[in-house]
Structures are given as C-alpha cells and as structure tokens.
Amino acid sequence: MPSSVPGELPNRFPQSGSGARSRGVSTSVPARDRAASSIPLLGSELSVLFRRRRTWAMLLALAAIPVLIAVAVRLSSSVPSGRGPAFLDRISQNGLFVAVTAMLVSVPLFLPLTIGVVAGDTIAGEASLGTLRYLLVAPAGRVRLLLVKYAGALVFCVAAPVTVALAGAAIGASLFPIGPVTLLSGDVVQPPEAAVRLVLIAAYLAVSLAGLSAIGLFLSTLTVVPVGAMAATVVLSVVSQVLDQLPQLEWLHPWLFSHYWLGFGDLLRQPVLWDSFGSNALLQAGYVAVFGALAYGRFVTKDVLS
Questions:
Q1: Is the pTM value of this prediction over 0.70?
Q2: pLDDT of res. 35
Q3: Domain chopping of the chain, boundaries
Q4: Which of 10, 147, 254, 283 is deepest in the core (most CB within 10 A)?
C-alpha cells in the first residue's frame, strides 16, 4: 500500500542495487538477510494498510452490521420463528447470537466487498500512484514484495470477521441477556465455550476469504487501475455464489471458492464437526496456489514503468 507522503516511499524499503532489480533481475542476497528483511517489510505494509481511513471505514461498516441487527431486534415486539436470517429468532433469548447472525449476514456481500477492495489494491494501487518501482529497488525484490502484499491482505481477512464477531458480542451483551447457548445439535454450552465457538467461526471465515484474496492479488497485477481490480474481485465473488445456487451446475459446486462459505454451522454442534472446515481449507489452499502462481508469473515478467 502506498504511503500518504510520496517522498517517504524510498525509506519504506531501504534501497540497494541498481535498476536491474526493478526489472526482476535477482542479486545475491544471503537467505538470512532476506528473511530478516521480510519482517520490516510486512510491518511497513500493515502500518500503511491500517493507517488508511478507508480501512477503518470498512471495519466500522462491518461493525455496524451487528449493531443494526441488535437494535432492530430490540425495538421489534417479536421476531417470527423461521423468518429472516438463521438464528435471528434466538437473539432476544441470548445476545451471543447477534455475532453469529451478523457473520452469517456478512458472508454473501459485505465481507467479500471489503476483501475485494484490499486485495485489488495491493499491486495496482502502488502502480497507479507511481510508487511500485520504488518498492522494487528494495532488497525485497518482486517475489518477496508479492508475498508481503498477500500477507497484508490475509491479515485483513482475519481482521474483518473478527471485527464483526467482537462488535456482535459487545452489542449483544449490552442489549440482551447472556447465558448458556443451545447448539444446533441440541446440546447446551456455557458462555465461555460459546465464545470459543465464535472465535472458530471467525477463523473459518478468514480461511474462506483467503482464496478470494489470492484472486484479487492476481487481478491487481493485471492493471494499474485499482478500482478495476477491486470491482472484478467483488463481481467474481457474486458470480461464484450465483453459480453455486444453480442445480444444473451441481458438478461444479465443489470447485467454487464460495461453496463452503456458509458451512460454519458444523462448528455449532457438539462435538464439533471439522469436515467442512477441512474441505474449505483444502479448497482455499488450491485457489491460493493457482492464483498465487498466476500472480507470480505475471508480476515477475511485468514491465514496471511507474
């Protein structure tokens, strides 16, 4: 992510070597030095990402989802059973269900939207501001820069669902009673264990968004217009979910990166069923591998002129 002060960009990554580095020509750098340089690179990337007003605006928008749900339920006289999102009718009995409902509501659009913005801006954002060539003359090189950019996007993949979970738990505890939680299996667990289940659901969603983030990274290497990469990433997430609803394409469903996004209900059973979690992680790892390789192939051969 570019710094708000262009003149400070060369200082983000200490410069060494010549213009050959920016053309993808590797130089002899000890492995220990390369590993050591990755930590400040990632730290700088995360600092830039989370200093942006846009990042905090997206996180605040995600936090507003459980707040709106909780206030709507609080002000309503009753919630008809079986209508609305899953778990909505349980919120008035236990405030912890605000977080679960909010994460369920956020999955189809809001979470992919924020991930698309962050991932689509990784490389294209630097190129559009003319700062990409400054980063490429640093000791990191193209491959390390690509990995750092993706690592930064992954951190946001974790931050986004965690924000929804924390905001939901907080507003739920403020407006509704907190007590033992009845799971989908019919078993009852105490609030501390229920909180652990919320953490597991947030982790499930973070894993679910890893594949989409890799797709956004690849699209970001194809253009110098970040808005285009952002929009394409979000559109692909919508298309994947639409295809997943067509029974005529049932053979394709297990290969769609959004297929297991709503499978976290298995984490609300006793004992926890890990089948969906494992299948989801394996699918997302495949997308990360494929689109990571495509991003690598595009980025290391790309002529950077800005």
A1: yes
A2: 55
A3: 8-300
A4: 283
